[in-house]
Each structure stands twice: as structure tokens, then as C-alpha cells.
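> call design_seq(struct)
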């Protein structure tokens, strides 16, 4: 963190409105009586950028928390769909499961901690590996 001066109330209000998602950027600036020139200046200010960056990280974290709350139910539903008589539905459910497992936050973090050098065992599925897995699943279903 830098020694940048704290943001003023107007800057904080603009940032809040930007993340509220209820208005477009130009409407927010107009509502707060902020010129485009001043806003562009803020966007080059280290303190303003730091605050925006922290807020973005926080919003992504909140989104991940929300997704994490429902991941068990989602995976359970996808597992049920892998047994579908419609092969395309089953195939897509398998792909979604593979995608979820490849994007798992704790999996990524443990792979970085346990294997910082990034050996092949810690890497996410490649398209080729996913394809082979789907082929095995399809064969198992046919049998």
C-alpha cells in the first residue's frame, strides 16, 4: 500500500455507485456532478486505483463465496445428469464437472502450495485429457 492521501467522500460515493450496478458510468458522473476530465484524473490517481482494485478483489471474493454456497447442490445435480439417457446432456454434465474441478479455488491453492514448481500432476485438465475422460465415461455408459 502506498502513502496516498485518503479518498474524499465524493470519490467514495462514485465508487459505491459504480459497484451498485444501477447506473451507467456517465449517469453516475452526472449524478455526482463530476466532469469526465476530473474522473479521468481520478483514474490515474494511485490511491483511487488502489481503492478500486481492493473493491474489485472483494467483489470477486463475494462472488466466489456465493458460488461456493451452491457448489455441492450443483455438482449433485450434474452427477445426476451424467446418467441421462440423452447422451448430449450427459456429455455436457461431464464437461461441467470437469470444468468445476479445474476451477476449484482450494484445488488451485493447494496445487500452488504443494507443488509450486507446477509439475504435470498439479496442472488442470487439458482438452485432450478431458476428451479421454469423456470417452471413458461414454464407453462405461455403453457397457
Amino acid at each position: 500500500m502506498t502513502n496516498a492521501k485518503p479518498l474524499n467522500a465524493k470519490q467514495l460515493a462514485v465508487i459505491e455507485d459504480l459497484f451498485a450496478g444501477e447506473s451507467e458510468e456517465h449517469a453516475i458522473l452526472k449524478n455526482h456532478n463530476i466532469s469526465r476530465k476530473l474522473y479521468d484524473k481520478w483514474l490515474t490517481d494511485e490511491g483511487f486505483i488502489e481503492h478500486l482494485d481492493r473493491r474489485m478483489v472483494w467483489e470477486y471474493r463475494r462472488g466466489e463465496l456465493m458460488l461456493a454456497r451452491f457448489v455441492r447442490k450443483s455438482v449433485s445435480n450434474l452427477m445426476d445428469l451424467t446418467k441421462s439417457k440423452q447422451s448430449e446432456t450427459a456429455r455436457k454434465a461431464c464437461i461441467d464437472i470437469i470444468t468445476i474441478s479445474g476451477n476449484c479455488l482450494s484445488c488451485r491453492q493447494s496445487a500452488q502450495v504443494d507443488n509450486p514448481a507446477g509439475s504435470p500432476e498439479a496442472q488442470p485438465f487439458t482438452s485432450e485429457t478431458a476428451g479421454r475422460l469423456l470417452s471413458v465415461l461414454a464407453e462405461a455408459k455403453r457397457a
